[in-house]
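Ligand-bound model needed. 2-succinylbenzoate.
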Amino acid sequence: MKIKSIELIEINLPLVHFFETSFGRTYERRIILARVEDDKGNEGWGECTAGETPSYSEEWTNSCWEVLQHILAPMVIGKEVASAENVWDIMKEIRGNRMAKATIETACWDLEAKKLNIPLWRHLGGVNQVIACGVSIGIQDTVDELLEKIQTELDTGYQRIKIKISPKWDYDVIAKVRETFGDIPLMGDANSAYTLADTELFKRMDDFNLMMFEQPLPHDDIIDHAKLQREVKTPICLDEPIKSPEDARKAIELKSGKIINLKNGRVGGHNQSKKIEKICREAGIPVWCGGMLESGIGRAHNIAISTLAGYTMPGDVSASKRYWHEDIIEPAVEVSLTGTIVAPEGAGIGFEIKRDRIDKLMVRRVEIK
Ligand code: OSB
Ligand code: MG
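Prediction:
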């Protein structure tokens, strides 16, 4: 394939409900979309999962826009690429900036699958057309509001509940959730809010029988996580520090955790997700697909990659309506009463792009040729 042009579009999309993690609250997303077009007129879409501030990672909307416009897009345009699988290699000499890279890389996969007229999930090597879904519920103003939200998601059919935790929202909150809902599949995500000084707290939280503690310790750590894992029974799940196949290999070798939350954006796209999925599958480490409050395009890519064999636990891939009054794809992502999503049979991501809606939400746009 030969990419002829890349259109970058930033949209503003208000969330149905604010989302709070240990690093802050988000009310409105600033999302960059990429539309890539080849010399034959085929097109593909990707979404940048960077946040509005460099809090989850160093990348954020503005840094990605700069890197995409001035560095990555010019690198990819006009190059003869054997397949979408090789787009990662073209951008290899640029360090980091993985969310920016994934924006273009995933768009090229969509384009290629559309060109081949096959669903993206099959093109990626997916085997499970039906994926298991969980929800991630942010920190609320009150515990009662959290309990209400959990009830709603359980009634909807989601297969597991993840709650965000932080030093002001942990032990007592989880105790209340267990007391109210009993033995539901439950986990906590700290987004790096603790240190080894909190080891005793995590030992006490072992009593809650959580499915996992996600990212309790600093965002760039895999050493202290290994120490903590030796002290607690609950499996540790790594999110932030696993940015490459090499990171995954090292974390597995060090026994830094027993589960990996795999995010396309964090690792640089489908090629890298596929490599990490394989490493984990061969090592007996389950992975699940994380979310970054994506609009429909990123969500569709998450559905596709979640069909790979190693994605054996329910992910944070949930219905569009939990986030958006109206999505930018059609149909919106819907979840069955048993908490599953069926990967679509249409070519590429398998959802229609609502270009009119995107244009209405647009705050800036640039086309690189
Ligand atoms: O740590 O998984 C995370 C959202 C933004 C940044 C980081 C995380 C999250 C989530 C939301 O947990 C998952 C979702 O998109 O539903
Ligand atoms: Mg996380």
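The chain has two domains: 3-117+353-368, 122-342.
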